[in-house]
Amino acid sequence: MPPQPGPGRSRAVSGTSVGMFAIVVLIWLLSLAVVALPAWGAAVLAGWEPVTVVILACAAWTASAVPVVARPVEAGLARLLYRSLRRPRPAELARITPALERVCRRAGADPGRYLLRIEEQRQVNAFALGGHVLAVTRVACELPDDMLEAVLAHEVGHHRHLHPLAIILGWWYLLPFEAGDRLVRTIRRITRWLARSFGRLSDRTGGLAGGRAPDGALGMLVLLVVLGVLVVAGTVVVVALGVVWLPLTLLVRLARVLSAALSRAGEHAADRHAAELGYGAALVQVLGLFLQIERSAPRPRGMAALLRSHPSSQARIDAINKTLHLRVSKIYR
User: Fold this and answer.
1) DSSP codes joined into one string, 204-258
2) Do 205 and 278 fall into the same domain?
3) Are residues 194 and 163 in the same domain?
């Protein structure tokens, strides 16, 4: 039996959306601190007014997220993040477009606002990115009509609740932390290498103390002193950065855990959207394809479990069945 039409609905900002954007605001505020520190240092070295430079740098960084949600930029980012992503071929477009139009007709959405993409994967999957990108795997295109429409209805639900927009903004404002983390790790590696070199040279120069100093011993001692200074300087820099970086890193880790929890809630919200449009039973069939794989894989524990972006397929199936049961109960009251 084909899915029955669901009620048309306008774009909604749910509690999950509010939570996601609250996390984005937190990450943005923390990123301003990361941007402000080098801006202040550069202003002092250049003899400029530090406060003005910091304000301009923070304003420029905040505004830099605006182009990220533009359609051409989103398409480029999607291609960068998912290397196997491509435009649909004519046959794939002829398969997806009518299905998307039927879904959007039920949802009261405009199918023309979405950028359709195909991901070359050997499993059924789909994702939404930013404000426009909607991608399905090549295998998903081979699903029966009702199951393909259920997959699309789920992703349209993400877009309707603005989940992908919050995710891409959060990803963008996390970039200074990624850069800072790489800087700290690089300085730490260089400091360790210098320390090892210092140790080896120290052993060699120590062996010269009991005998006649060969040619170049003075140069080696000078190099030893220089390396020692660099080791001390590198250690001081790592410690100084660590003092500043540690609280920010902890807050970002907390934000990521909360963001993952909200992402899982967002998956349930998108599932409810598909179910309310009449695609609940078909979506359960799609999720059933993943059950055997998930049951054979080890369950994530600890931090890995906290950072999961998706709930288990069984949890999603149970939630959809509960939604379907509630809908039936309301009909027969």
Assistant:
1) HHHHTTTSPPPTTHHHHHHHHHHHHHHHHHHHHHHHHHHHHHHHHHHHHHHHHHH
2) no
3) no
pLDDT digits (tens, 9 = 90+) for 185-234: 787 787 777 777 766 666 666 554 554 444 455 555 666 666 667 767 76
- Number of structural domains in the chain: 2
End-to-end CA distance of the chain: 23
CA distances from 114 to 22, 104, 128, 159, 307 (A): 25, 11, 9, 9, 28
Let me know whether 94 and 145 are in one domain: yes
From CA 5, how far away is CA 134, in angstroms rounded?
A: 22
Pull the structure tokens for residue 297. Answer: 């894989």
Which percentage of the chain shows pLDDT scores above 90? 53
Q: Give pLDDT < 70 ranges for the chain.
A: 1-13, 198-228, 231, 234, 236-244, 327-333
Residues of the domain holding 183: 176-236
- In the three-class reduction of DSSP (H, G, I as helix; E, B as strand; rest coil), residue 133 is classed as strand
